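Sorry, I am new here, but would you mind making up a protein's amino acid sequence and the tokens describing how it folds?
***
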Amino acid sequence: MTDAPTTDEIELTKASRKAWGALETVHVLAHFAEPVTQGYVDLGLRPRLSYFAARSAPFGPVGPALPAATFYVFAPWLFDKALPSSWEVASPEQVLDAQRRTMTAVMDQVTAHVAGDSLDDAGLDELLALLRTACAGLSAPGRPLYAAYAGLPWPEDRGLALWHAATLIREHRGDGHLALLVRAGLDPVEAVVLYGLYSGMTEFMRATRGWTDEEYAAGADRLAARGWMADGGLTEEGTAFRRELERETDRLALEGWRHLGLDGTRRVLELAAPLRDGALRSGLLPAWLAGGR
């Protein structure tokens, strides 16, 4: 059994979750902003499948097995179509170069949409310094996707460095979340079904994760056998489990935030919120995503 969290730990968890949420909007620009996708297409990659090459590029010219294991929730056939064929068109180094080049321009556009003086140059510098301190407290063992990104050099451009920090924090948290899914015995399809129902994003998950209707239905049946689903929705037990999964994910993600401290984490939230708002106002994100935040 773990000790009951202290008041400071509870407050740090609340603040860090909100800070991560703001940074997540910055992170996803690399996957949803059209100029970034166009940069991959200009290399010869296919628009939808470029996601798998771009996100796995820090691993090097790998085949489908490693990304399928570390991304977890996507159907294997998507990786089979994307890898290693993408590396015949562009090397991982070329993909990363395109990502950083286009994300530099995207982050310039985002910061231009920050309202008034709510986040001026001094604020951006402060935010980056705080995030670098938080990232310095992250550890790699057991977190392969985070480790791959942490092995990349920090960008010199400030806006790109802010995105890199958001990505490190995101992938560190994501690796911890997947460890909890494995511990709970949830396979990828079950994880997709459960999250879709919990978040209200079922249609998006079904449209993007690549599982067939039959696979999805079988995953739902397995959740029903656990008592977590009934009549097409989550039971109280299923909702309680998914809520606890989020709390445990928050707990495993505290490493860097502890290194930064509660006051620093709260300051990250204060500074990252207008950056998030700038990303949402920039027009770079799809309407369904920007409108849902």
The longest helix spans residues 158-183. The chain has a mean pLDDT of 95. The first strand starts at residue 229 and ends at 230.
